[in-house]
Protein 1
Amino acid sequence: MAAGSSVVLTGANGSGKTTLLRIVSTLLRPSSGTGAICGLPLDGAADRIRGRVGYISSRGTLYDDLTASENLRFAARLTGASTPDGRIEDLLASAGLSRAQNQRVRTFSTGMRRRLSLTALLLRPLELVLMDEPYAGLDTEGMAMVDHMVREFLNAGTTVIIASHQDGEATRQATDAYRIEGGQLMPVGAGI
Amino acid sequence: MSMTGRVAAIVWKDLLIEVRTKASFHSMLFFAALVLFVFSFAIGPDVPLLKRIAAGLLWIAIIFTGILSLSRTYQAEEAAGGLEGLRMAPGDPRAIYLGKLFGNIALLLAMEMILFPASAVLFQLEIARHALPLAGIAILGTVGFSVVGTFYAALTLNLRAREILLPLLLIPALIPPLLGAVNSTQLILDGNPLGEVVVWVRLMVAYDVTFFVVCTWIFPIAVEE
């Protein structure tokens, strides 16, 4: 998979898209086989891989009783991302969440939650971003926001892998597309 | 990011959520008060008997309340999509365990600051006179309970019957610190010389150190999928 490319993964429910993303992110240990992520072996270099890879699940990882700003600050502290003065506010502004920065995430809509989850990935430089169903439950505006975020990652030279059922700009314009069927990964050309 | 920084971040996050929601604290407080009241009413106005068994009743209330709090330890993570977010952060995953552990210790000690004076009133104990040694025993007992409890709570996180399995696994493992805490508390309350408590303190220190090292060491294997 070329660095800086975007790849879309499709397949029926239960075909293994999420499992594959979780293996690539090092959250799940493969039962057999080998692999290399960002030039690092999956077996034995999980910690270094996590330093270069960001993963966003379909549920996202947000704490309902923290505000948007606190969620980002916590993510930054946990990952060691530097947050100079105004960085969090700038990121929230670029995600269109300025006015909601001091609101608890509990009050957010699905679209706002997704935007905040994606914004957390922008806190530190990443070589690979994995997105599991990023369009799920979003309206047209929300989907455009996801596409905008994906473009930002690609412009920064980050490789993006999207597992999605839905058709968005990012999946249409992906440089490679694969379908998982019967446990096999089959190339289906560019975009879906 | 240093290990200390990541541990501090998790403690800060957990305590901030607890201060905002008071989800664990209120239920712990209510449950502990209920346990103490039920025991004191069941035993009746027999003050000498109450004084003789007060340490045991107090630590039973602490252990039951602590189990209630442990089952909620990872609840915020579950609502936020499981431990994925914490596990995806680069660095040693042991920071997750240590962060949760220190959060649990802080919460349980805060609870004990209410529980000890409450039991002094209910069981007519002279706690103020022995405040310092009792505080030391409370810390040792709480650390021992939390070290093992936080580990088992992570271990049972993804199990369907975790509410049953957690106490089933935990209570037998807690017998040594429970014996130490009950006996040393009773000896102190009875006004015995502190020298008599040393053997129980040694047991608790040995337990706390051993299980802290073991649980911290094997935590990454326990949460690996």
Protein 2
Amino acid sequence: MYKKEPFFWITVSCGGIIVAFIVIPLVQMLTAPSLEMLKETFRDRNVVRSIWLSIYTAGLAALISFVFGTPLAYLLARTQFFGKRFVESIIDLPIVIPHPVVGIAILSVAGKNHWIGHLFSELGIRIMGSVTGIVVVLTFVGLPFYVNSVKNGFESISPRLENVSRSLGASMFSTFTRITFPLAWRSMLVGIIMCSARAISEFGAVVIVAYHPMIAPVLIYERFEGYGLKYSQPVAVWLVSICLLLFLILRILTLRTREDT
Amino acid sequence: MIGISGINIQLGTFHLRNINLTIERNEFFILMGPTGAGKTVLLEAIAGLIPVRQGSLTIAGNDVTGRPPDKRGVGIVYQDYALFPHLTVRENITYGLHFHKLDRAKAKKRFERLVEELSLSPLLARYPTNLSGGESQRVSLARALMVEPSVLLLDEPLSALDPGFRDEIRKGLKKLHRDSDVTFLMVTHDFSEALSLGSRGAVMNNGMLEQVGNMKEIFQHPNSAFVADFVGMKNLFPVQIEDRRASFNGIGIELETAPRKDEGFIAIRPEDIILSRKKLESSMRNTFRGIVRNCNDQGLYYEVEIDTGTVRFKSLVTKRSLIEMEIHEGQEMFLSFKSSSIHFF
């Protein structure tokens, strides 16, 4: 691009505005609470419990996505079938549905009036106001991120590598473990991080299904409602630090992938 | 060795129709045809990578129609090499050993022989990303042959290579084929490859086999307009060699270099044959007198057939030179071609 053209300066200033738009509020929030307050907040059992709950429910959602999403992603990457586009749109639905609607939708099958909810209550599984419920919601919102990332990963591996492996005597299972998995694990890791980052930030759907036990975003909201901005900020700082850490790991991993290829 | 009978495959809108083919043990069989003819589909069906629902397939006398690809003993070499990028060259070559029960000493011996034959020893510790095309294809060949398949399928193994490497791999292929009893089935677009490597072959078009037979037979006596048009080598003659001289049907042709064989084939592209009314005073050694027998309008060009009495040559001339030289049937002309434009097989 020619640097003296006004167009160049338009692109630069737009970029600057966007960066400032993202960074200024975050920096303001991160620097608002004193170190003393941050320490104190971290000693608060409720805070630690909620952050820990957020992390491990998000982690569980990612694990479930890994177990069920990997074969689905493989199927979508490797086969052509009637209605594939339709299935892909269904996978993407949780991204576009408003978050409270997700919560309401899940609750409407989890209630005892629905046969699924009835079955669950017979089995002693409670969705409403439980950790199980939170994991269900987080999986619902995080799954598409995992499936799409891993599907792209599988698609970037030539099926010919698998063909050659088969012709050399490897079963489908051996081919997957020896060829496909080692070449796709990075995209799986990226998928897990994307999925859990999305899950950790979920509020709208969780608050409907499970206000208690309290995940971090719900706790922040409660502190804000009850005590005001000043008391919600330290919790937010802790949560954001963790999200940033996840994001950082993601960036490092994707950068390394690009260098390899 | 490979018996294909009545195979029909449908993939989306593409059909493979009624394929019947027998390939003998240790044959070097060539499969030719335009892009989209179904050559790769047929190869992958033999390897078991595409299911065959109609017809049957036997390899070494066993019906393998429904067998999975890992239980067929069919190796495959692709045009893009398909090396495993996360494994070293050595790991690539020995990959198949994980799935074959093989005596260690025997495996080691075979590995060393392949590494030696394909000159791979300096590459063993490297990763495929750092290899040239020729190196990659040699690794891919070694990997396929390491598990001693009964059939080796080669999907245009030379077409992605630079000309220098191509010749090297071609020689390697010939040697590997001679030294083993593996049946080779190779897809190619290149006729000199086809003629120099293959003993028998087939031309495929539109999901069907147009012609199956001896390589030379296909080139000399195409049984359909499609095959004739496809093989395109209009002037192909079996010749006897004496030093630099190739003789056939009573005429002698001067070659650029002396081949090391007593007999073979020469081919001259019709566009390389130059026509003139008078004998050309030039460095071209090969000049013959003949009579125009046929002028075929091919749009921008005319294909002119000239009979020297014992041999019929085909030449391509532009419409303009046809008019300028007043070429017509029965006209006596001279035809000349450079020694360098003669292809010898």
